[in-house]
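Batch manifest, entry 17 of 40.
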Amino acid sequence: MRAAIYERTGPAREVLKLVDLHDPEPAAGEVRVKVQWSGINPSDVKTRAGVRPTATPFPRVPHSDGMGTIDKVGAGMDRSRIGEQVWLWNAAWDGRTMGTAAQFVTLPSPQAVALPQGVPGDAAACFGIPALTALHAVRTDGGVQGKAVLVAGGAGSVGHYAIQFARLSGAARIIATVSSAAKAELARAAGAHEVVNYRNEDVAQSVMALTGGAGVDRVVEVDIAGNAKFDVALTRRGGEWVVYGTNATPFQLDFGPLIANNLRLAFFMVYHLKPEERLAAIDQLHGWLAGGKLQHNIAMRLPLQEVARAHEIVESGAATGNVVLHLD
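Output type: structure tokens
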């Protein structure tokens, strides 16, 4: 099979290469998936660059998210799954060397989730990390029913879904931060009631004005290092931040304002969701998909041979939405 691999960490064009590998065989309890779409996430890029250390041995096939068709099953597996279209999660995680940037991937059966009918394959390759991150950020700690929610980076791959999920979950008001007029339109189309352009507006001042001085109940935060200062100023007393990302490590938080405002901070990594949390999120996601209630924002579709370029695009932040690779 054709696959992208890297044998050391470093810049995309220096370490990523295409090779021919033996087709993998599924072990007991596993399925083999013929991959059609491979989703690229910032965590994939950081791991390849060496920013996110891992003990996974080399060589590695990157990417945790994907979509394809089960073509083979291992011992003890139901053969009726053969031919099933599926979306994948955590393919390249927890010491696994074989991600979805290959024509075939094997993985434990539960990590290949049956795809609801009519869902585009390229969108399905973005469910494992972007969609489930957004959904957990909205669902956790009692959800957002009746709450005012700020989604940081509302046009991003996670933020775009988070706006939709907050709306569908009954949020009273959804405010999104964006960096351009085009991104503002994306956020509004997803369901944001208001948008704030952080490049030319005072975010805290604007959010407080939009909420009549009350502040928001929950912040869904993509970059706590960069945004904590104004998050403190725009969150109501007793409010919460649900944090799934940062653009700098380490970072510092000012203890005084946090404790004075009784703020609650929840950090999570989607790779480590509890089984019951993941199953509940998948069930909710599939319900909305079956009802045709979701928009998907695929910024770029590239062939496998352009994997290095795709990594550079994700790394630069230039794509507004998800970047996926198509495998023949």
